[in-house]
Amino acid sequence: MPNWIRRNLVVLAGLLTLVYLTLPNVVVLVFSFNRPDGRFNYTWRRFSADAWKDPCGVPDLCGALALSLQLAAWATLGATVLGTMIAFALVRYRFRARGAVNALIFLPMSMPEVVMAASLLTLFLNMGAELGFWTVLIAHVMFCLSFVVVAVKARVTAMDPRLEEAARDLYAGPVQTFLRVTLPIAAPGIAAGALLAFALSFDDFVITNFNAGSAVTFPMFVWGSAQRGTPVQINVVGTAMFAVAVLAVVAGQLLTARRKRAEEHH
Amino acid sequence: MTTATDTPPRAGAAAPAVRRRSARRRLVPYWLLLPGVLWLLVFFALPMVYQASTSVQTGSLEEGFRVTWHFPTYWEALRDYHPQFAKTLLYAGTATLLCLLLGYPLAYLIAFRAGRWRHVLLVLVIAPFFTSFLIRTLAWKTILADGGAVVGALDALHVLDVTGRLGWTEGDRVLATPLAVICGLTYNFLPFMILPLYTSLERIDGRLHEAARDLYASPAATFRKVTLPLSMPGVVSGTLLTFIPASGDYVNAELLGSTDTKMIGNVIQGQFLRVLDYPTAAALSFLLMAVVLVTVTVYIRRAGTEDLV
């Protein structure tokens, strides 16, 4: 083996893994411009931008997408509020049953999803609850909660308590201290938790599949289409989601970089 | 709550008010915890109880199910579905191992060799998440298609000979074989391996590497004696974060596999949503939970990082 390769073996192996990770996204993008012959969009035929011009051209697709967005928005709101409260309690206060609360937060993250999905379904069946939007929303808030707690906890733990003491020394009331000092510092953690919750809820399939009844979210639409025939529009939606998310990340990075530079100038 | 009347008078006039405020302050954490913890108790813990009770019920859909403490359901479920349990452990275990082998070089590259590209590479690792995982899993149907470039390359490299002998592929097909399922599982959970690995690698003090080199350790020895031991927390949490979800997954087996590659998740899903045999489904779900918990506990004991969980 030439010396050059031996020295960079790790780099080559790492880049190969990166190819493995990104290849499906490339395929999704390329095949959003395909015009397949049959019902399934698995084989390349010829170039066409028809699906991009008419992303809602498939019945029920955009309805499923709207339902998923709506669910993700409410689930994010619920999980972020409840999770942030728990995170503050865990970091800022001493109380009994701390270990039990930590276990209750940790367990949902360390359980195969299908187990949670199945047990939640037995609860709903036993209670005679009607499966649909509300049961899915309840489930999404449940499994997103723990991730919000972890994200917010990390940020609040790293926070300097002296800042709040300083605010109080300067005669800020508890409410004022919280709104003007605590919340702005914790905000990046809360935002990270909320983004994670949104992504988890939007992309969830297993728990939703068990508890949705006849409601169809976007992942469930894709699952169903794997049996009935995969419209090219699925790839259009997937690629568009990817583009929006990447743009958001880049914009966020630029914004923080600019703010940092502005702070340095002051 | 203690009232102001039993405070000793010499504490001064301000004491009752302070006492009342501190009692209220003591209750603050409980009010903060209440809604979230209640949510988890009712929709996470309570369902486990219901599932336990469902697993010992007998009856039928028409007549309804009643708790009869019928424990043989567990034995029958294990007898009927032990091949699927074995496949689950095999596929999820192999996928976890592959994730470690594929993920470690990339995590290492990002932590030590990427320089100013570090953030770009990290975003590239997370970026696939931005597209629905079902769509990305379906993309593997195209990548692994019969007679496609990937299958051709694997055939030319004699990989298919080896996997064929292992029973993981049949002839020159990859799709609808165990290899396709393992490939999908590895792909889907790879970021869960890379991120904890990266976190623990990134924490390693670069001066340790210099010290090892100064003491005439070869790069291989440096890796074995310094880098790898220090990255063990990442290895342990990465393997857990990969193995646990992989063991419950049924999407890859359904989309990329065949009827011969069914995992236990597929059985649970089928029993719950199609066959509607709730006791068996609940028993299987509990067995899966038990198997995962036991595997994870044994693994953590042996890996010796108990403070991780």
TrEMBL record, chain A:
Membrane-crossing ranges are: 9-33, 71-91, 103-125, 131-152, 178-200, 232-255
Domain ABC transmembrane type-1, by residue range, is 65-255
Topology class, membrane: Multi-pass membrane protein
Spell out the family assignment given in the record's similarity comment: Belongs to the binding-protein-dependent transport system permease family. CysTW subfamily.
Q: Biological process (GO) annotations?
A: transmembrane transport
Give an example GO cellular component term for this record: plasma membrane
Q: Which CDD domains match?
A: TM_PBP2
Q: What are the alphabetically sorted keywords of the record?
A: Cell membrane, Membrane, Transmembrane, Transmembrane helix, Transport
The superkingdom of the source organism is Bacteria
Subcellular locations according to the entry: Cell membrane
This protein's name: ABC transporter permease
Show the Gene3D superfamilies listed in the entry: MetI-like
